[in-house]
Design a protein that fits this description.
about 525 residues, alpha/beta, seven-stranded mixed β-sheet, about 35% helix, globular
Amino acid sequence: MGARQYDVLSRLGLDQAAEIPGAWAGKWLGGGAPIASEDPATGRPIASVRAATAAEYDEVVERARATFLDWRETPAPERGELVRLIGVALRQRKKDLGELVALESGKILTEGEGEVQEMIDIADFAVGLSRRIGGRTLESERRRHRMYEQWLPLGPVGIITAFNFPVAVWSWNALIAAVCGDTCIWKPSEKTPLCALAVQRIVNDVCSEMGAPPVFFLACGDAEIGRAIAADVRVPLVSATGSCRMGKQLAPVVAERLGRSLLELGGNNAAIVLDDADPDLAVRAMAFAAAGTAGQRCTTLRRAIVQEGIAPEIIRRLKAAYASLDERIGDPRDPQTLVGPLIDADALERFENAMRRVADEGGEVLAGGKRVDPSRLPEALRGGHFVEPTLVRARPEMPIVREETFAPILYLMTVSSLDEAIRVQNDVSQGLSSSMFTRSIGAAEGFLGAAGSDCGIANVNIGTSGAEIGGAFGGEKETGGGREAGSDSWKAYMRRQTCTINWGGELPLAQGVEFDV
């Protein structure tokens, strides 16, 4: 296993034998404290990265600011060409980068490569966007006046990402922001710095080959770097992905300086299963949504709200599915693995604390519920952070059910009606993703209507996770209200300007006001 680790690092230009500089400001910097990257499947260190110092962070921002002054005037299709070439480079490095994502974040290999595919897809989307950004012509109430709106580059964008999507979320922001004319300052999770460094090297090479300025900048470090970005008036937009707690700390700091926040925070996502649902479809979708990425997606399914009539069949099938998943826990880089490790020892402790609370609050464990016995694992993995995918019979009023535990725990609750199901689903503070399984058009339309799901994402007959990049991604309530990726999310990275041109010889005022001088 060790040789495979070193192979993928060297193929991506990373030297595990030395402390790797963790900041890019047109040149490599990194005089701060070391950040240890750990393999969550083994508990052993992979490599060490040097964080940015406060002075180096300032240098990163100043370089991003200076580059923006030129980049904002670069024609958008030319900006799109840079992103197109980044997409080409990502296609060429998909296998290696996907393996590094699996190594450092603990995702299974197919999800690691799938995450890189998201980057490729968003690059394609951004290239098309580079020739479509535009405003509208508006009707003026004044004769011989033309009124229109236009969208202009905003400035350096701060991008704070989490460990669970260590490369894709950066691309949702950075590649869209780049074609909008912005530069980008990336603060990755301290738990996955190597993924960020590998991506930074790829985009550096593309910028160099194209003769483009360094549009993408990097500052690895701890929460102090994140706080610096939040407070920095030179960074007009801060896009941050993480927990609700993190968002509540960051948002007031950005707001105090009247900056913009784009927040993608926690989710306590639910699937409603009605009596008329296809049980096979529902169970297959829920099993992936609940156990994929070892329950460490913001869109992970955490609550199954099942109508009473179909509940016994759903429980029977879910228990069988979880028994199957239990046999495929292991090395995330093994193609046979379906469930990899939690990210670190702290995550494992939070899982065990949640299970103690389940017992205290009267929940019934139907499957899983424990740390994986190390004796079940190959010797190399016995220091890893593996837990069993867990199914719990619960009640909506249990406090633990209303919280998000970043682990593969699915709380199953029964309800008598659609109205009750929607009330239970919406009765949490988070509002990211939701789904319903039904054959009823009426029920589906009710779920998708104004009195239905209060989440930013609502699906019918698919799970809560696995969103496509073409739609705007994000949620409501404590999830933060931000939108990234597709649709018109690009508007967050630009400033809107309303323009009026008087091409006549008179000066009529709006609303018929007269002011003769």
